[in-house]
Design a protein that fits this description.
It is built from twelve helices and seven strands. 48% of the residues lie in helices and 10% in strands. It is globular and about 65 Å long.
Length: 265
């Protein structure tokens, strides 16, 4: 299944993979897991700078995974980065649910860590029957990565259902920002033939989410749902969103010209 990640053959000896030994320990004791986040985008070809390693764990096995990683010499640490904290949020004000650890060789002031997050938070199915269809193992390795096509669907679902309006008003916006960035890194390197395998509504989402301003994204959420329900076609929705993006761009340019004229007077 390494064909899902062609770059793996050229980077398989990088130290980043030896540092995933804890995930191989999960596989050895039957803990259902999957590496997600920036490492997936990097393995697909992104030049994203790697920081924390995110690992999804089947919800009911989260505490067992914590015990395994502690027994492998890792130390549990508090989230040091306010990027993942928003005290005013009604949902997840302290950042990611789950546990965070530092590697044994890291200095106390080195904040690169490992996050174990319940799979349900990412809307990722790690059920016993779904594990093999949604994740892949690399030759000679025992850590799991997501099947790219499924992972795209997961991120779309995550952005729509967890972070789409109106729930986003109560959510920790720092988490939303990370998911959006991760989606952007990923989509830059997803092959077009995989995108063509998505449902019509998800193809609509992929085409417009990154290029749309926030007000248009709200309309994109609604159009995605209508295409899913069959009340409009993907082509009709595309024309509607394209018109909205065009009109907002036209207004923005007109405003910029007016401001420039005022400065020159």
């Amino acid at each position: 299944m390494a064909t899902e990640y062609p770059r793996y053959t050229t980077v398989q000896n990088y130290s980043v993979f030896s540092e995933l030994s804890f995930a191989e320990a999960f596989e050895g004791v039957g803990i259902r897991h999957c590496v997600v986040g920036d490492l997936v985008a990097w393995l697909l070809g992104s030049d994203v700078v790697l920081f924390d390693t995110f690992v999804l764990i089947a919800d009911e096995q989260l505490d067992a995974a914590r015990n395994v990683i502690l027994s492998n010499g890792f130390r549990e640490v508090l989230e040091p980065d306010p990027y993942f904290c928003k005290p005013s949020a009604k949902k997840n004000p302290d950042g990611w649910p789950g546990y965070r650890f530092a590697e044994p060789h890291r200095a106390l002031d080195d904040y690169v860590g490992i996050k174990l997050v319940p799979a349900s938070f990412w809307k990722f199915d790690l059920g016993q029957e779904a594990l093999c269809s949604n994740t892949v193992l690399f030759p000679g390795r025992w850590f799991r990565f997501p099947v790219p096509l499924y992972y795209v669907r997961v991120l779309i679902s995550l952005l729509l259902e967890r972070f789409g309006p109106p729930s986003a008003e109560d959510e920790n916006s720092k988490l939303i920002a990370y998911i959006k960035l991760n989606y952007g890194y990923l989509m830059t390197h997803i092959p077009g033939d995989l995108i063509s395998q998505l449902s019509p509504e998800d193809q609509l989402f992929v085409k417009f989410f990154i290029i749309s301003p926030n007000p248009t994204r709200k309309k994109l959420y609604a159009q995605w749902d209508q295409v899913r329900q069959g009340t409009v076609t993907k082509e009709e929705a595309e024309r509607y969103i394209e018109m909205d993006v065009h009109m907002r761009l036209k207004r923005k340019r007109a405003l910029e010209r007016r401001e420039l004229d005022e400065e020159m007077q």
